[in-house]
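Bumping with the actual sequence this time:
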Amino acid sequence: MARGSVSQPDSPITIRHPERNSVVLDRNDANEKRENRSESSSATLLDTDTVHEPRKLDYLDLEKQVGDGPRPNAKLRYTRARLTLWMTVNTVATVTIVFTNKTIFDDPAFRQSQVAFATFHLFITALTLYILSRPYISLFVPNPMRLRLMLPLATTMCLNVIFQNLSLTYSSITFYQIARILFTPMVALINYLFYQKSIPRNAAYTLLPMCLGVFIISYYEPKSTAHPEAEETSMLSVFLALTSVFIGSVYTVWISSYQRKFDLNGFQLLYNQAPIGGVMLMVLIPWTDRLAVVREVPVNKWLMILLSGSLAALINLSQFFIIAGAGAVSSTVVGHVKTCAIVALGWLISRRPVTDRSAFGVILAIASIIM
């Protein structure tokens, strides 16, 4: 071929193999095959990059795995061990955060910083959920909602957090935790009055001793003769506790309503609420709180605040794993264990003399939630 000449595009390419006959391919056919392979590879990469299915946990699909055939004992033991670990983490974190927050609020420097403390918790929660939603974790897929739709729920969430902290600040730990048992009958009442939802008659009967037990504690706790250094329960404590229960119950009912209406799971809903609530409360801090002087607060208090935020993140995370892995019933059982542990430890460290009537009220209330 002369220098500078260009080969014809239609000229055939002959490929020879030492042990096979020669194969003649058309140059256009070869180019077409190379282009098809390139397009196929690009499509595969595009699908991989754009479709992010949430990573499924090993124990979230137990029934399907059992239906497909017998599961190895090692796999089942591993699943149960992981679930037990998350239940333990949730219980320890919940009990610890109650006593940690109580210690923080007992410090005069933080007693008037309820809104700032709630803001800190909401931003920690928002940051945790943001990290869990990233593609390298993909625990859930965010579903952004319009601001005007989330404002009512975010406002209720802020009030719920603030009144919980106020109730814990001005009450004994035992009374604070026992009063929260009223969430169940209050939620049932709100659902019945506003959503025409009823509960089975036998379940309704168990609510009566529950309410009676809390009433007995609310009446006799302020009248008890406490140790001089013990935390006293006043009528203000009772008012804050009951207000906290009412707001928390409304918030709980609205959460269920929002999840049904907008088809959101708990993580997606909290992902939308937490940053909105944090910004709302941050604006109120200059008018509501008396912030502590940083230099006057010991280092151990700041460490306790960081611990409180970390525990809040652990509680939210572990609660999801418990419900996903064992269902709502097991989650409720874990809640009963936490209630009993907090009440018992609260009595032990409060140095408050336990009267017969208060003890009867506590036993009656706790027995009713286990029934």
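The tokens above came from a reply further down the thread. Strands lie at 13-17, 20-25.
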